[in-house]
Design a protein that fits this description.
The protein is α+β, with helices and mostly antiparallel strands and 103 residues long. It is 13% helix and 26% strand. It contains two helices and five strands; from the N terminus they run E-E-E-E-E-H-H. The radius of gyration is 14 Å and the shape is globular. The protein starts with a strand and ends with a helix.
Length: 103
């Protein structure tokens, strides 16, 4: 949940057999969104995710993980290495998201 500021949350489902496998979702979240668009996101296990601050100032993100952080559990896979693509087939990148926002 975004307590202040604005972000874009990226979710990409690379799970084999998932009904949403191969889907990339970009979710604008934060205080510039209308009240009806304020939401909390539950991210399923093994769904790749990341966020970028999209407003002109800082953002505060509230995160409630299911277990205490353990650095040895960290599995970072850059979106560029997992095959995440936009609907037009171009590879996902945060630079491309910035261009979309400028659009």
């Amino acid at each position: 949940m975004v307590a202040a500021g604005d972000i874009i949350l990226a979710l990409w489902d690379g799970r084999d057999g998932s009904p949403t496998a191969g889907t990339l979702d970009l979710l604008p979240m934060g205080q510039s969104q209308p009240d009806s668009a304020q939401f909390t996101v539950l991210i399923p296990k093994l769904v790749h995710h990341g966020f970028m601050v999209s407003g002109s100032g800082p953002a505060i993100l509230l995160n409630s993980p299911t277990q205490l952080y353990n650095p040895s559990d960290e599995g970072r896979d850059p979106f560029s290495t997992v095959g995440a693509t936009f609907d037009n087939g171009s590879p996902f990148s945060w630079a491309a998201v910035r261009e979309i926002l400028r659009g």
